[in-house]
Amino acid sequence: MNYMDHRDLLRQSHLAALIESVCQSLEISPSQNQLARQRYEGVGDWLARADDPLLVTIAIRLQGSVAIGTTVKPIGTNEHDVDLVAHLRDVEVAVSPASLKKSIGDRLRSSGSYAGLLEEMPRCWRLNYANEFHLDITPSIPNPACRMGGELVPDKSLRIWRASNPQGYRAKFDRRAALAPRIRRSIGKAFDSARADADIEPYPENPGLKGILRRVVQIAKRHRDVHFIDEDVALAPLSIIITTLASRAYEYCVTNFEYDDELELVCDIFRRMPDMMQVDVVNGRQVWHLWNQTTEGENFCEKWNNDPRRAVAFHSWHAKALLDLETLAAAEGLDQMRRLLGSIFGTAPATKAIDALTERMNRARSGNLLSVGRAAGLIVGTAARSTPVRANTFFGADC
């Protein structure tokens, strides 16, 4: 492998490390996660001990981004959504969604711990824990018509039950996320096989993206949030649409192709996301379908067919997201990386990640471990045929 190949691998590894750092900063923290677990287990115990016969078999389960590990902190707040399903395995379809929801709300309201936190939403009950997170509790019952173990949840009007399958969706996402991509250039092996006297920076410890599919979903959701700050937020694509398209594209990519590096794979996943939808033309207009593959009759794009602006908004956002990501993948130098990361993730998390990398480089410089090789740019660690860099806070164009 020549010097330019090594240099490109180093640049890619730094970019992957920066993206990984930003994504980690957007996740629900371990302490928040533990607290949320305690909260929802407490809620589940309180509901399970109700005298109401409708609630005898109730079980509280996680769904959504917390369940599949794709949380993204909302812009401007530390609060996260924690989505829960209150599943009643012995309740039949004859019971109305409104009556079941009322029973759950009455039980929560009867507790001094929950009454002051309770807020009624169209399909669920919300417990607001200020400056922490809020728990959304949606009732569900078995769907006898679904051969895949699906469930039924209320529609927004509470008049009918609608098909869903939170547990099946989660299991399918986890199976896709576990698929291993084929990356042609193994960076560790490339450096092990390099010439002993090559001016090559040691590969960063724990490099790369931890769980590429989950990181892709987080990147997409955060870019959406940033993009729609100045747009009509009501038209922003739903997280379930982004997550479904990304997971299907990931499965297609890792099953059919090999990639030079992780970022090439990430860009290809983004590129192929729109291809995962079904588009028909009915009476001269487009009809969009993104079916839930774990149940029958749930179309995640249903709102697009009632409001075509949603499809337009999605494709406009997607084109911008893909362009920003492809530009970032080709970025050279920390200044350019900072600007491009800011356009994807927002200024604050991008700056935090860049500053962490800068600090690492400064520590290496102050310990005389940073040098400039003829081909590799800035180097952490001593290397043959390199010139030490004087202690300062300047970063050149190369990483």
Give your account of this protein's structure.
This protein is an alpha+beta fold. The protein has two domains: 3-27 and 176-197 and 209-348, Poly(a)-polymerase, middle domain; 50-164, Beta Polymerase, domain 2 (2-Layer Sandwich). It has helices spanning 3-26, 30-48, 64-68, 97-109, 166-177, 187-192, 212-227, 239-256, 262-272, 302-306, 309-329, 334-345, 347-366, and strands spanning 58-63, 80-88, 118-120, 125-129, 133-142, 151-154, 161-164, 182-183, 258-259, 278-282, 285-289, 370-373, 377-380, 386-388. Strands 1, 2, 3, 4, 5, 6 and 7 form a seven-stranded mixed beta sheet that branches. Strands 13-12-14 form a three-stranded antiparallel beta sheet. Helix 1 packs across helix 13 (347-366), helix 8 (239-256) packs across helix 9 (262-272) and helix 12 (334-345) runs antiparallel to helix 13.
Strand portion, in percent?
Answer: 15-25%
Overall morphology: globular
| Arithmetic mean pLDDT | 85
N/C terminus separation: 19 Å
CATH structural architecture of the largest domain:
Orthogonal Bundle
Note the total helix count: 13
Rg value:
24 Å
* Sequence of secondary-structure elements: HHEHEHEEEEEHEHHHEHEEHHHHEEE
Estimated structural class: alpha+beta
Count of strand segments: 14
- Per the CATH scheme, the topology name of the largest domain is Poly(a)-polymerase, middle domain
- CATH C-level label of the largest domain: Mainly Alpha
Count of domains: 2
Main sheet characteristics: 7 strands, mixed
Determine the fraction of residues in helical runs and give it as a percent range. Answer: 40-55%
Low-confidence stretches: 187-207, 370-399
